[in-house]
Design goal:
With 170 residues, the protein is an alpha+beta fold. Helices cover 35% and strands 40% of the residues.
Length: 170
């Protein structure tokens, strides 16, 4: 079209690109699977990130209000339990995690997850294994995509139920 400046065309292209990106994210939020599938996906993502040595892949699914049974009693020195999980994952080498008998009970914005865990890891040259129960409490927390699109995400608020008698060092 004669008479239009190049800035106009750049603006139109940028606006179209922005509309496509925002529209794609809105559709992505609307097409999310059900609660149980989202929780299973979050747990599997954390498991894979642990095995790959990527603490961030675990921490993104831990709530800022995360607590665990290890932050009580003798372990009250953990000022920030989420940071302690990150520190552990940076220092340890997780070689195997298998989860079985996964049971998920969703009630509104909260979920109880119980399973059996079989894991091997190495910390400070000491190899350890754990085979026993694991309990997670998860909550659907408000998050945003592109800073504007609401995208509630299931995050772990509590981890526990671990049978310390089942933790073995070798």
């Amino acid at each position: 079209m004669p008479g239009r400046s190049p800035k106009f065309y750049i603006f139109v292209i940028a606006a179209a690109f922005l509309a496509i990106v925002i529209g794609g994210n809105v559709v992505g939020v609307m097409m999310k699977p059900g609660d149980e599938a989202q929780i299973r996906e979050a747990i599997e993502t954390m498991r894979e990130a642990s095995l790959a040595g990527r603490p961030g892949g675990v921490l993104e699914y831990l709530s800022d209000s995360f607590q665990s049974e290890w932050t009580e009693g003798d372990y009250e020195g953990f000022v920030n339990p989420k940071a302690e999980v990150g520190r552990f994952l940076r220092q340890a080498r997780v070689t195997r995690i298998q989860l079985s008998d996964l049971e998920i009970q969703v009630e509104g914005d909260k979920a109880q997850v119980t399973c059996s865990m079989d894991a091997d890891f190495e910390l400070a040259s000491m190899k350890s294994s754990y085979k026993g129960p694991l309990q997670l409490v998860m909550k659907r927390e408000p998050t945003k995509r592109l800073f504007i699109i609401p995208d509630p995400t299931w995050k772990v608020t509590y981890a526990g139920g671990v049978d310390m008698e089942s933790l073995r060092a070798y």
